[in-house]
Sequence to fold (868 residues):
Amino acid sequence: MTAAFPGAVDCAGKPTRDFTYVPSRRRRLTEYEAVTCFTQPDIEAYDQQGWLLRDATGRTPWMRESTALVHPNWFAFRDPASHWQRTYVRMQAEQERGIARSAEDAAAHGVFDEFDPVWVREILGRHYRAWSYAEYGLFRAFAVAQREALSDTLGNVLCFEAFDRMRHAQAIVLHLLELEDHIPGFVDDGAKDVWLRDPRYQRTRQLVEELLACNDWGELAVVTNLIFDPILTEISMSQLVRRFGPFHGDPVTAHLVGTSERDRRRNLAWTQEFVRMVTGAEVPARASNKAIIEGWVASWTPRVDEAAKALADLYEVPPLQVARFDDVLDKTLRAQSSLVTELGLKVEVML
Amino acid sequence: MRNLIKAHDRVKDFDWEHSYAEKPDRYPTKYKIPRKTKDPFRHLIRDYVSMEQEKDDRQYGAMEDALARSNSAGKAEPRWMEILKIAIPTVNFGEYAAMKCCGQLIDTVDNAELRQGYMAQMLDEVRHTNQEIYLNRYFAKHAADPEGFHIGLKARGINLFGVAGRAALEAFFVGDPVEGALNLQVVAETAYTNPIFVTLTEVAAANGDNVTPSVFLSIQSDEARHMANGYSTLAAVVSNEDNLKYLQDDFDRAFWRQHAFLDPFLGTVYDYFQKNRGNSYLEKWTEWIAEDWVGSYISKMEPYGLAVPEWFYLAQEQMKWKHHTAAMLAAASWPIHFWRWDPLTEADFEWFENKYPGWYKLYGAFWENFARTTQAADGVNPLAAFEALPPLCQVCQMPCIMPRLDCNEVRFRSHAGRTLPFCSDPCEKIFFDEPIRYEQSVNFWQQHDGLGIHEYIVNNGLLRADGKTLISQPSLDSDRMWTIDDVAAWGMEIKDPMRAITAQLAAVGGSTNGSAQ
Fold:
């Protein structure tokens, strides 16, 4: 067919008509792999001439030491969700449209009038809004992680997670603006002060600041997605805001938290894949990688647990006791512990 | 939700003073940026994702529907399509590097307004990275000659000019983050994305390729926001007088680093691969860079203490010839590349002479000869005409033959016991201001020194599906294409020219500059 056109070449074998330089995990090269792989230069593979610029201290564009973990080929990582920008943006646009529609429907049907006033003032106005700062802090941490990650496939999942976090933070702000529009007397103010001064949040704030100070992108991913979210975000958002909301006349916020849970599942899945990759049987440094990750888990889990426990009395604030904090914490810790052990990690966490 | 102003204010009030752990100074900057400035990006994520999804749907929808069914890629002028094999992957690293630049800016620039803009740009850059590689793959599937497209990013990594591109584009994110923003947002995006994403689409469309414009114009619709980021960053920098003592030097360096690669590269793409001819690269450069960027954008900054880049006028003077010289070397070294050349014709000569008076006298003989030596059966080695391979600049990695072979500005300087080549006064100055940043770079000749050209081609997979025909060809003729045996018969090795030059210089006692070749 091509021979019909000027310049067509039909005398040098049958061309493959697809990229031949990307090793696919599937039978055929996926769209995700095609548009992602080797967009970051790999000086071990196709860019062996090495780096062409250093900074004033002599550091190269990327550095192996940017994580304590060691892997012979970071470019082998694949996102289990196979997201590239188009699929990622489409998914988030759908989620954001869902949120906007849910608020619109709630307004049209007077659902906001059914919100419990204590719920609105204390949980949404103070607790939920204070959480937007935690999400923002994580956005900043992941923006750095995507910069430093040692391959394109890793850089992209970290970049998408950074964007997720900012989406969550903004969605909270916009949701409270809706409440201001529809709930007489409600004003979104004072939550920053809660975040900065309320003793309940200081452990969480400390964790976020420590994650922002963390220079190891592998550690940031493992701690955030295997410990922080499964324990603290679960306790703070899912079990309190999402679970209690409908009992206080609020099905709207639960939907919003649901969209961030979708992001959390995706981020957990790629982090599990990441841990399996660095501890895989064929990886020479698997034992030390495993020990490093176990060290992270042992060091961060008690701190995350403490931050969660500091929120305990929040569960007493909503008028209806939908769940007891101790029960929720117990179940959450057991679920998180299973996530860790399912990855073959042995950790004795002193809680 | 009724109050958008409140929404914008609140999403920019997320920062707080840390009390428990100090954020490390990961990407130190010498610049002081005010905490609050004008907001370059008044979009909420909710609006942003919806807007980008719509643009994606339009662009990818067109590619898979009307453009595929009309076989736009297959019917485009083959001359034009060939240069996209290197152009797309090379530009692509700029997008990827830009994403990294934004990560650094988010971490370093303590200003909520600017940070919102950087956040959206970070995701835009993932978009552009993906869009361009999608385009590259699309051409691997649909172009009349897909060979070369199918190894795009791999081939970029091992190509002499692909590497020079990376040298320029690494400046987006290696070093002071604000210097990175000057390279990326103020120079590359504000000055050069118009010639890349706007004017190149005119050439593409005139040459039957309607696919590239679909992608590039969609990219350019994001670039307007990035230019706003650049302007706001620059405005924030000049608002503090203490910054001015660094700014001009960094700006001068950023301009030269981008010019040294982008202009010879884009000029070659633009002028040497049009079949249906329109404007010249110089005309477009004058319109977009000299008149628009310098004349209108930079001049607006002059009252605040930022002047036109020191080396702009040198660049302007050299613009008439630089890319012709680069194109000549690229054509002469055709076997090591991964695209085909279409020898220039009488009509092309006339166009060049008309657009660049004096061109024929300087370059006509080369191209006349090139057209006569394309037959594989004749087996003429185009590189044999050169006494030695030209040295590659230690800073920009481009051949030290600019602006013209007969009046090149190559100079050799001693540094830490080595003799290093530089293409120009600016690159030499840039090097000696901060040698640590460039002294360890290995150039293409050093990397492949001692390898037969045919070995380089085989080792790097630059052969067609039959395993013997070269991807690169000196013509579009497909009757008797050049094979690896034809090149092996030359018995030519890649030799780092600096060994001989260093010995020569040692014999005459010292370093030199000027037309030393």
Summary: Chain A touches chain B through 97 residues (CB under 8 Å). Chain A has ten helices and no strands.
